Amino acid sequence: MKCHDREKLFLFVHQMLAPQQAERVRRHLAGCAPCARAAEEYRSLDAALDGWTVPEPSPWFDAKVRARVAGSAQKDPGFFGFARLRMLVAGLAAVVLIVAAVVVFHHHPVVENHQPAAGQQQPEAAAPQASPATEAVRRPLPPEEQLKMDENLSLLEDYDVVSNFDALSELPQANDN
Fold it and tell me: Which residues contact 120 (CB under 8 A, 6 or more apart)?
């Protein structure tokens, strides 16, 4: 046994060691005064604890405890009590998150990509002939042309031009003959 192995000393004093280990500890205690003192301290502590009796609570103990618990429950924590403060902080955090989301999504326009994926492109021979107007719709405009178009947006949105436009009158009519 190593000197000052308190766990083995405790087990030896309480007779919890195997017989061979107990014999080794007994031989060590015979030659080691500090370990013998520590074992004696364990024995004296056990004797003191064996002689101790638990004091009985007073007959009014339960009544005093219940009165204190009821008194602490009746105290008003005030307007900014802990529970109310937590709810207030949670509400403010929710408002801040909503405002931040609105600001972020309002200032970042959604970019739409109308180009087909590379794997979904049809071969050129099978595609029908497209007019230059539909071809311009399919491919994105360079940034300079897009900026010019945005500057002339008021001309494109002229109500008089749109109100007099009749797309169906331009279609060929079928003869019922």
Answer: none
Q: Residues 6 or more apart from 34 whose CB is under 8 A from it?
A: 3, 4
The whole-model pTM stands at 0.33
Are 9 and 38 in contact by the 8 Å Cβ rule? The answer is: yes
- What pLDDT digit, counting tens, does each position of 104-155 carry? 877 655 556 555 555 555 555 445 555 555 555 566 778 787 777 777 666 6
